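Pipeline run #58 for the internal structure catalog. This entry was flagged by the ingest filter as a single-chain record with no existing model, so it goes straight to prediction. Upstream metadata was stripped on purpose; only the residue string is passed forward. Reviewer on rotation: M.T. Logging verbosity set to normal.
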Amino acid sequence: MSTNTPDSGEAGDHAPADTVRQRIFLVVLVATMGALAFGYDTGIISGALPYMSSPPGQGGLGLNSFTEGLVASSLVFGAAIGSFLSGFFSDRFGRRITLRSLAVIFVLGSLGTALAPSVNIMVAMRFLLGIAVGGGSSTVPVFIAEIAGPRLRAPLVSRNELMIVTGQLIAYVASTLLSYLLHDEHLWRYMLAIAMVPGFLLFIGTFFVPASPHWLVAEGRLKEAKKILKYLRETPREVRHEMAQMKKQARAAERGPDAKTLIREKWVIRLMIIGVGLGFVAQFTGVNGFMYYTPIILKSTGLGTSASIAATIGNGVVSVLATFVGIWAISRFPRRTMLITGLCLVITAQIMLGSVLTFMSSSVMQSYLALACILMFLFCMQMCISPVYWLMMSELFPMQLRGVLTGGAVSLQWIFNAVVAFGFPPVMEYAGSTTFFIFAAINVGSLFFVMAMVPETRGKSLEEIESHMKEKFGEKRREAEVL
């Protein structure tokens, strides 16, 4: 461990506010290397697939619509397994050790996909890579939320989403540049190999960041937790207040039911339903149909392969800009308001895209209008829905089960992602532009779910959120049952 972290015993007095913020931002930067790798790995496939579809004699793997969906979705199925397992692993061994282990899998999976000689091995390596992607997607937001503190939690957890879309933008730029500059039949292998870089950075970075103080308190390691809070908080008052809340929560967990009993309590089940439902909401917007298959959508309008791949840069730029706006908004507006607004705008964009593809003939104008609808969709999605989803996954569940329940909810979100990724090419082939009207109808249902089920968590500490959820969905319900 570096001597720059509190684990070395050099916490000392409180540093100036600017220094403390720099320390927190460094921790967030390291943790979000996992999100950067996540974004790159999910984004690069849209550029690699057209070249991987070439016959084996021309350097490709000879993919068809079925194996295209299999290659794209195998990472997502692996992510479902990885996010579920990492929840248990992070609760047992800590968030930092979990991220370090995932970094190793990132590197091995990336190398394996770049060298894969056949479709079967490609699918297996994408699955392995997915384990790291999924593990990072459930562990990184929780780690940041527990490190950041109540005041900075919303904007800093949202940086996880920013790094995801930044990784996707890098993937789109890299695939475009390589497609224009490097005339090599194995071009797609270079695209996939670049994914090793953020994995290396994450592995190295985990030796320079502290452990989660919340996890340390839950493990009974109070002195270490206090030392880290001194390192990461601006005033002694903040340290005392957070330590008091965490110790109170830990005592309540000791006096209360064990994990096996707690997970069966009605208020926890209700929260799990909400978490799983939010994953459905996020994925069945159809966002990853656009992220993985925008070149295929645009090629259906008559646009060429290289131009279709280049157009995905617009996806990345819009997603990054929208996430900056989302980070600004998420500290100022309620979570529910952002979700409801985002869904209304997403539904509008999908109806517009379906109309453009249905009622216009193939032309340059149709290509541009279709791209404009896709960019509108992505802006609304990345501004209002994605940041709120990842933030709520980091704050919704009780500390005693936070890793496990977050992992479980995110795991099911990845399964929803896989259904969209695997199903989009054949549905698009069969239903054509009607596909986007189907997504719009699904999102109307998602809108009603959010309005009826999702609670507001803005302005509360993690401990206050837990108490509020228990009171709202637990004790009051039991009182009603008694009456």
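catalog note: Residues 7-12, 475-483 have pLDDT under 50 and may be disordered.
catalog note: The chain is about 80% helix and 0% strand.
status: ready for reviewer M.T.
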